[in-house]
Amino acid sequence: MPIHPTAIIDPRAELHPSVEIGPYVIIDGPAVLAAGVRVLGHAQILGRVEIGEECVIGQGAVVGGAPQDLHFDPSTESSVVMGPRNVLREHVTIHRGSKPGSATRLGEGNFLMVGAHLAHDVVLGDRNILANACLLAGHIVVGNGTFIGGGAVFHQFLRIGDGCVIQGNGSFGKDIPHFCAAMRTNRLTGLNVVGLRRAGVDAAARSALRSAFKQLFCSGLNLSDALRQARLQPPACEPVARLLDFVAQPSKRGICPWRGGAQTED
Predict the structure, then answer these.
(1) What is the DSSP-derived secondary structure letter of residue 142?
(2) Residue-wise pLDDT tens for the chain (266 aa)?
(3) For 8-139, which CATH superfamily applies?
(4) What fold is seen in the domain 197-248?
(5) What is the pTM of this model?
């Protein structure tokens, strides 16, 4: 096990023999690191953290820090649970859960670029890309295969669906449904057509999704009435059913609206 002599490793930590630990790393607590994990220089892993196979924890990253919650009791037993093949680049921060037994969770194959932040109780699915300095507040749920541009910020408790693309420097306080493109402040601009093609969604399903999107967001009806109209007929395909189900179960933040036309801020 290649461990740099300057690293400080808690005796309670469980490290697979293939784990690599870089200079000045701190592992403080009963962390569990699976096969092939690499922890690069000056990174810190704090408390109850589980890291899956072949993850990379970049220079200066901090995983398992206490939530930034004024009411948080530091004695609370909570954790971070990370699946395999996640890459955290420099200075990424991931905070542990805020309640006893809770966890901040990452699936597999996510790529978090420099300075990205996951607050307490975030659930991040699989194969998502978060560009530099994305900030996700507490209790956010992100699906799979979504791209978030650099500097985008998100209010606590909202949901982001599968296959979304979100513009950098955007500001969001409402849910972003499956397969949608979003920008600026709580603005849907349409479907993530490029992402759908790359994901192998066929032309018929993409056409059905366009029709469903227009019916939901561009009909002039409020969203509840538009959803009711959309559900008068069986969904044309499984992606449409998923989109309708997402819209039918919003978080308490509500759903971002579509705003077409003008390219300047309101």
Answers:
(1) E
(2) 699 999 999 999 999 999 999 999 999 999 999 999 999 999 999 999 999 999 999 999 999 999 999 999 999 999 999 999 999 999 999 999 999 999 999 999 999 999 999 999 999 999 999 999 999 999 999 999 999 999 999 999 999 999 999 999 999 999 999 999 999 999 999 999 999 999 999 999 999 999 999 999 999 999 999 999 999 999 999 999 999 999 999 999 999 999 865 454 44
(3) Hexapeptide repeat proteins (2.160.10.10)
(4) Udp N-acetylglucosamine O-acyltransferase; Domain 2 (1.20.1180)
(5) 0.95
